[in-house]
Amino acid sequence: MCQELADRVDNIGSGSIHAISTYLGGCTGYQVFTRVHLFLHTDQVLKAMRESDSPKPAIFAMSNPTNNAECTAADAFKHAGENIVFASGSPFTNVDLGNGKVGHVNQANNMYLFPGIGLGTLLSGAYFITDGMLQAAAECLASYTTDEEVQNGILYPSINSIGHITAEVGAAVLQAAVAEELAEGHGDIGPRELMHMSKEETVQHVRRNMWYPIYSPLVHEK
């Protein structure tokens, strides 16, 4: 089965592998989509990706925890080449490629999108999440990464900006719901108020409804 998948990579010149097998070296139960996704891979498939038509082959080993990842970051760069873009569901350290080069590891964590999607949907009052709302969230996140960073293998912004990103993603989702006439409002803010909010006002509205951890001291200070 692994050899068959490797052969398909060779035949269609796929530029992307998205693996969700939930075990190391998984190579069963895959589906093939030309130049879009290939599920489950081993070293054979990674080596086939080296000959991809894409100038920047993408390999996403999405399963977690770490011991269930379809491949390690080191194996991906070793077998598929230094020019890949690598992301994983589990954390891996960046790979030293020698000569001062670094193979960047991107942890594709749902924290970048899920909180914003959830809060934006809640505040919009929409009863379901549309493809347009998800597209708005994805495009918002993508806007934080430059073309130069992508060329260097960096797919996601710094985790230090996660609070800011969540507010922006939430606002993008909310505005998409308004544009699709799905927003019914939440609490004291109705659909009319949402409709007349600017982007900046929508972001501030989301920020006001975010939860911020404030911890009380547990030890009495003398």
Descriptive notes:
- The structure is a single chain.
- With 222 residues, this protein is α/β, with parallel strands linked by helices.
- The chain has 2 domains: 2-107, Rossmann fold (3-Layer(aba) Sandwich); 110-208, Rossmann fold (3-Layer(aba) Sandwich).
- The protein contains 9 helices and 8 strands.
- The strands form 3 sheets. It has a 4-stranded parallel β-sheet, covered by helices on one side. Strands 2-3 form a two-stranded antiparallel ribbon. Strands 6-7 form a two-stranded antiparallel ribbon.
- Helix 2 (43-49) crosses helix 3, helix 4 (114-124) packs across helix 7 (162-179) and helix 7 (162-179) packs across helix 9 (199-208).
- The longest helix is centred in the last third of the chain and has 18 residues, at 162-179.
- The chain starts with a helix and ends in a 14-residue tail after the last helix.
- Residues 9-14 and 20-41 have low confidence and may be disordered.
